[in-house]
Amino acid sequence: MRVLVAPQEYKGSLTATEAARIISEGVRAALPGADVAAAPVSDGGPGLLDVVLGTAGAKPMTARVHDPLGRPIDAAWALLPDGVGVIEMAAASGLALVAAAERRPLEASTYGTGELIGAALDQGCRELVVGAGGSATTDAGAGALQALGIRLLDAVGDGLPPGGG
Predict the structure, then answer these.
(1) How far apart are CA 20 and CA 147, in angstroms?
(2) Which helix (H) or strand (E) holds 85?
(3) What stretch of H or E contains 88?
(4) Cα distance between residue 27 and residue 15, in whole Å
(5) Contacts with 27 (C-beta within 8 Å, 6 or more apart), sequence order
(6) Do 92 and 67 touch, CB atoms closer than 8 A?
(7) How confident is the model at residue 164 (pLDDT cuts 50, 70, 90)?
(8) φ and ψ of 90, to 5 deg
(9) Residue among 56, 67, 63 nearest 87 (CA)
(10) Residue 73: beta bridge partners?
(11) 66 pLDDT band (50/70/90 cuts)?
(12) Contact yes or no for 61/77 (Cβ under 8 A)
């Protein structure tokens, strides 16, 4: 019998990689003759980097960026052996970075995600995968564009403030 174990994270308790390992151990214990393959997965939200960094040759990287409310943080991204950068929006602009009492989605920005993209570009990446899940923002990526130097203007030509409001 062949069994494929392909879980996503169990938010707040297990990463996808941890879940795949534990479930695989359980299947092996219950079905000793089974050919068990573990393949943790992600929908592009929190946990994407964990899954990507579990692949051969993926290199963890970090960059100093801004969280959704503009506070400096260190956020992770991954560099694949073929030079592709993998960005997890949640690492810089994620809901988990903002305490419940601080959640102001109309003010929160994806600026830090843009900074992560910029860091990957500075490392020579010319192809990027951006997992856009788990965000604390509603700015539709406007902050990320601003971090990359794009000016966003209102109807009278004034620059737009951070956030989705």
Answers:
(1) 36
(2) strand 85-88
(3) strand 85-88
(4) 18
(5) 3, 5, 34, 36
(6) yes
(7) confident
(8) -60, -25
(9) 63
(10) 65
(11) very high
(12) yes
pTM of the model: 0.85
pLDDT at position 25 is 95
Two tokens, residue 144: 């990320």
pLDDT in tens, 117-157: 999 999 999 999 999 988 999 999 999 999 999 999 999 99
CA gap 99, 68 in Å, rounded: 11
Question: 């737009």: which residue's tokens?
Answer: 160
Pairing of strands 2-5, 35-38: parallel
| Structural tokens at position 117 | 């993209």
Phi, then psi, of 82 in degrees rounded to 5: -85, 10
**pLDDT category of residue 75 using cuts at 50, 70 and 90:** very high
